[in-house]
């Protein structure tokens, strides 16, 4: 998007855990909410990886409120965010959520990607699409994920 104008659209695959917000590691859901791109990784097994700032403050609050993470973990997440650092990625909330390509591409992978949501919680594009998307985003780009 550029303001309210759609610049580019892509077919995505998302978490195979179904609809609803990500709440816990292993639920295979894609988090819903407003995130930012915090890191790029060009040597990813998924071709290219754009890491999002998951968990964010809201994710941490719900995690603490629902007794998924401890008060110490909640504090560690909020402190990291306050100091513009990457929040801990190893709590029961999960981590390393991002937008990525397919990696080594086969006809079978392309068919799966076009038909089902297959990720562990990330958002997947084809390698060509992630290469295209790179042209439009940078560190700090806002990413809104909704159903």
Précis, in short:
With 147 residues, this protein is α+β, with helices and mostly antiparallel strands.
Task: From the structure above, extract its key features.
single chain, 147 residues, alpha+beta, L,D-transpeptidase catalytic domain-like, 2 domains, 5-stranded mixed sheet, 4 helices, globular
Describe the protein in words.
The chain is 26% helix and 15% strand. It is α+β, with helices and mostly antiparallel strands. The protein has 2 domains: 1-54 and 96-147, L,D-transpeptidase catalytic domain-like, CATH 2.40.440; 55-93, no CATH class. The chain has a 5-stranded mixed β-sheet with strand order 4-3-2-1-5, with no helix packed on it. β3, α3 (107-115) and β4 (123-124) form a beta-alpha-beta unit. α1 (57-65) packs antiparallel against α2. The longest helix is centred in the middle third of the chain and has 12 residues, at 71-82. It is globular, with a radius of gyration of 15 Å. The two termini are 17 Å apart.
* Main sheet overview: 5 strands, mixed
Average residue-wise pLDDT? 95
CATH superfamily of the largest domain: L,D-transpeptidase catalytic domain-like
Number of domains: 2
User: Do you know the CATH topology of the largest domain?
Assistant: L,D-transpeptidase catalytic domain-like
């Amino acid at each position: 998007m550029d303001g309210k104008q759609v610049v580019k659209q892509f077919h995505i695959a998302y978490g195979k855990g179904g609809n609803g917000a990500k709440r816990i590691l292993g639920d295979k859901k894609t988090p819903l909410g407003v995130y930012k791109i915090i890191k790029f990784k060009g040597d990813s097994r998924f071709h290219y990886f754009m890491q999002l700032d998951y968990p964010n403050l809201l994710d941490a609050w719900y995690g603490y409120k629902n007794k998924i993470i401890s008060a110490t973990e909640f504090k560690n997440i909020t402190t990291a965010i306050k100091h513009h650092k990457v929040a801990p990625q190893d709590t029961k909330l999960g981590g390393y959520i991002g937008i990525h390509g397919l990696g080594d591409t086969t006809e079978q992978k392309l068919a799966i990607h076009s038909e089902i949501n297959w990720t562990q919680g990330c958002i997947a594009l084809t390698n060509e699409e992630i290469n295209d998307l790179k042209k439009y985003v940078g560190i700090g780009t806002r990413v809104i994920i909704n159903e």
